[in-house]
């Protein structure tokens, strides 16, 4: 791992407003999570299923917010190479295009991991202190949901980095981000077999809770599917970036 290249990517972030985009992601999901419980006529902080309301809110908020903003993060971090002929400049210093993509994924991946985990913790703390939920939280289910969403977010991020690196016109990458948002939301109404066909469909598969009948109920988490997605994504990202290494910058 080229630590100097990763450090260089973090240095670029200061001029690309990556922190601002990340803050918008976190706050938007928090707002949608709170709106879900506030707007529910059956929600009660004393109910045993109260935490499921916030989990249902995050299960809706993350697919609505993250896919497009992940595209924005990847596009901003990668477009700078197209604009400043950065691919060639870094190739002259011994860093291949594939190596640049891997460095970008590592740097942005740390940001996305922090934002995903931070969002989950912020919703948890807000539910306890602001909403005043009394029953104990199921930390295993909460952590499992966070882990599944983290896997999907990183896979989507990796895909957008590859697209942004390959295509000069970043409107294409942003268009895919919009399409991904639509797929992430509408996959909640599709059969699981169909949801498995795209990375964005895994947002629907990883829903931790939903409103059913007269209240919010917890849903089983797709640990095997998330693990399989991660393995396939790692293999494909490695193969594609390796092919980038053998192309001219």
UniProtKB/TrEMBL annotation:
Coiled-coil region(s): none
TM ranges: 20-38, 50-73, 105-127, 139-159, 171-190, 221-240
Pfam family, one: ABC2_membrane_4
Alphabetic keyword roster: Membrane, Transmembrane, Transmembrane helix
Domain of life: Bacteria
Name this protein carries in UniProt: ABC-2 family transporter protein
